[in-house]
Amino acid sequence: MRESTATDVALEEVFGVGQREIRRSARQKTHLPNALFAKFLHVVDSSGVLERLDAWDLEDGRSPAGRKATVGRRAVLMAFLMNSYWGEGYSYMALKATIVDRMTREQADRLGFDPEEATEDEWYHRAWRATQGILHLIDPWHEAPGLKRKLTGEEYAEARDKYDKARESRGHEMSALLVRASLELLPKKYLETYRGDLALDSTLVEVQGAMNPNDYSKRSLRTRKGLPKRDMRNGDYQCGWYVRQGNHDGTESDKAQPGYELDTTVMIDTKNGAFPFPLITGVSFHRPAEISETAITTIEQHAAFTDKRGLVVVDRAFNGLDTHQFQEPVRRMRYETVYDYKYTDLGPQGSVPGKPIIIVDGVPYVNRMPESYVMISLWHAKGVEDPATGKPYTLEKRDEIHQAREVYQMIPKGKIDADGHQRFTYPDPRKYVGFDPGTGKITKDNPTGSVTIGLEKDVIKHLQKFPWKSEDWFRAYGQRNQVEMSNMLLKRPGSTNLAQQVVRTGRGYAYNYFAAMIASVATNIRHIIQGLIKLNATDSDGQPKHRVRKRRDTRGCRLNRTTETQMLSGAESAPPEVGVIGKNVWIEV
């Protein structure tokens, strides 16, 4: 009899089966072990989605009376989840195959159907009808023409006018319920070390077919009022247009890809490195570049899952939003942020009204710094000449000035409060040389005490936890790759395989959103399995495995992992010297 390992014990605690059974079922892609099947079914049953679907039926005036469906919504959700976990795709043919052949008789009984009572063609149509019953309830285009043909320009314009925001909200709710249920598979003891950090990113879910004509463009607005009524070229007239560059808005490009964007939030650890369970905690779905309404939805889903408040790490697209769409609600939820910037956003970014405080490269400083300290990041990015050398500022010089200006930085005093406000203390004026912001001359009029920074637009637009490009910033922002890796796993063939259009044979927003939410649940199950395996992996001597660093020193020896304590324990540098060249005041570092 095989002896159970620590990994087996951990997996059995959560899924009821060990590592060998999990791997065998993943390879065979048929007949989940009963214990694992029960866990999948628990996600569906405990989510509350089935109850919400029934409630939406009543809202829409559909009576629960009449003949019951031969294959119910519970069985359809379960079959889609199994197929996603196996990477078998989201087609109706794959759905039929799982209902007919990939469940044991006992499992079919639990789902309330008999695979032998009908032909395969009949099961295909039954499963299709049951799925359509789900999609109809979350389809914001339900009053528009079907997806069996391409629309004329006039038909498309009418379809847009009938878009149902309430049905869109149902889709977000359904997604949140399913994802939350998958998160609760992980025992709470594994979340004790979670610090509350998360990363948010968008990823393309491409659809088949040609790109439709743009339904909104600057050119069309210059030449005519309203939407251009051009005929659609793609049967999925509901999709948008994606380009990889910038904010992914492809409405002005003839090389855009047709599809949708999926937003996900993932659990990360910006202090200690990768969190062992990078679970997807929030999901939303929209046309490319339309993140203004949905970005905050994913963070709200995450905040509902845990009361721990850490850092929100995002790319440039999100701090480019209007503050009421992202920055303000994030701070009201008591999160701090980690941003990257376009070069045009570097340098001075705002000021606190009525206070001698400016926002520079993402953090507040007392407004007593020399000009070069305020402008250095922008000057370096633009290739401005360094008066000391007659050549453009170097990266090394930029980083030296970044380090030297730390003595001017406002000191946070406690956490963000429920209104999104935060207290700061002015830096000790004995540790820096103050310069009058108007004259540039040395001054002794340096403020002390504490101050509250509120939700002024110019202040919170680019405000973040750490100074841009500092060691703390690099460590935190580097963990954004966890959400990128999660999205890669979400889309990769051999995993949940969301990227391949050929395994998503349905069309439309509702169908593709449904596939994305099921894939997110299956990905979380995979993340939990992988996390448990990694945490409990041992070497041949039974000792815990530790990942070895690939980077080496000049002698070829592997570098040790640098702890935060080691990074912050450097000796305090000597006070800087003050010098003047022309009208520019600078500090040698």
Summarize this structure as a short list of keywords or feature phrases.
589 residues; alpha+beta; six-stranded mixed sheet; 21 helices; 13% strand; disordered C terminus
Task: Walk me through what this model shows.
The protein is of the alpha+beta class. Helix content is 38%, strand content 13%. Strands 1, 2, 3, 4, 5 and 6 form a six-stranded mixed β-sheet that branches. Strands 7-8-9 form a three-stranded antiparallel β-sheet, with no helix packed on it. A three-stranded antiparallel β-sheet has the order 12-13-14, with no helix packed on it. The radius of gyration is 28 Å and the shape is globular. The protein starts with 5 loop residues before the first helix and ends with a strand. The relative contact order is 0.12.
Short summary:
The chain is an alpha+beta fold and 589 residues long. It has helices at residues 6-15, 19-28, 34-47, 49-59, 73-86, 92-101, 105-111, 120-137, 153-161, 165-183, 218-223, 295-305, 316-319, 327-332, 371-382, 395-404, 457-460, 471-477, 481-491, 509-536, 564-568; strands at 197-206, 240-242, 257-268, 280-286, 311-313, 336-338, 348-351, 357-360, 363-366, 385-386, 391-392, 411-413, 422-425, 450-453, 577-581, 584-588. Strands 1, 2, 3, 4, 5 and 6 form a six-stranded mixed β-sheet that branches.
**Assembly status:** single chain
In what range is the share of β-strand residues? 5-15%
Mean pLDDT across all residues, rounded? 87
Counting helices, strands and paired strands, the structural category is: alpha+beta
Strands, total number:
16
Q: What does the overall shape look like?
A: globular
Please mark out the parts with pLDDT under 50 across 5 or more consecutive residues, or reply none. 216-226, 548-589
The major β-sheet equals: 6 strands, mixed
What fraction, in percent, of the residue positions are helical? 25-40%
Number of helices: 21
